[in-house]
Amino acid sequence: MYLFHYYEKRRKPFLNLSDLTDEESIRLHTKLASENPNFAKRDDNGRYMLHRRIVEERAYAAFIKKGGKPQRKAPHYMILDTKAWEHCEWFLDFGVVKIPFEEFDNDTVSFTYGDSFPTFKPIFDEAPEYELYTYDEITNVIKNRGIPLRFVEDRPWYEPSYIEAQVWSDEIINNYR
To answer: What is the Cα–Cα distance from 91 to 80, expressed in whole angstroms?
Structure first.
């Protein structure tokens, strides 16, 4: 099993907007959105970072409740296993980092079956309630439901199209920067 991280080749991997101050992250997010219309789709009237911080606070609390041991307040985002290359439409010239899951400490990685935004619904009332999973839990979910198919036509926006991994530590990530 592998975790994949995608990034713009003109930048380094694992740069995290959440590591910046609110002002810095909003300024950078606005700049990135102006450079890449695909990236701008992630914004909701200039409130992306506000919503992202809400999602990250909820995910952090849920992970601790499940016994996780996060070493960061905000995770690094990755995608689990195959079909991950299809997410490159978010980037103009994407690079990818592929890390075997065995390198990570299970206590520092959580998963959502689909994106963490609809899972923790900062503003989306119509999104179904999903949850955050530990490694053991997500492997059971995969056995029962499989890995979601990427972007099937006429699928609701909130329906899972990949498994997101939230890496709550810099330890392994720093080896791949």
So the answer is: 18
Q: What is the pLDDT of residue 135?
A: 95
**Average pLDDT, integer, range 111-129:** 70
Radius of gyration of the chain (CA): 15
Total-model pTM: 0.84
Question: Tens digit of pLDDT for each residue in 16-65?
Answer: 888 988 888 778 777 777 776 665 555 556 677 788 888 899 899 999 99
Strand partners, 4: 79, 98
Calculated CA dihedral for residues 13, 19, 22, 25, nearest 10 degrees: -10
> Which own/partner contact pairs does 23-32 have at CB distance under 8 Å and 24+ positions apart?
25/49
Buried b vs exposed e over 108-124: b needs ≥16 C-beta within 10 Å?
A: bbbbbbbbbbbbbbbee
Element (H, E) at 3: strand 2-8
Q: Amino acid identity of 169?
A: S
> What ranges make up the beta strands (E) of 27-108?
76-80, 94-100
Q: At what angle do helices 48-65 and 22-35 cross, to 10 degrees?
A: 120
CB-side exposure of 18: number of CA atoms within 13 Å? 18
Q: Measure the CA–CA gap between 8 and 84, rounded to whole angstroms.
A: 15
The whole-angstrom separation of Cα 172 and Cα 22 is 26
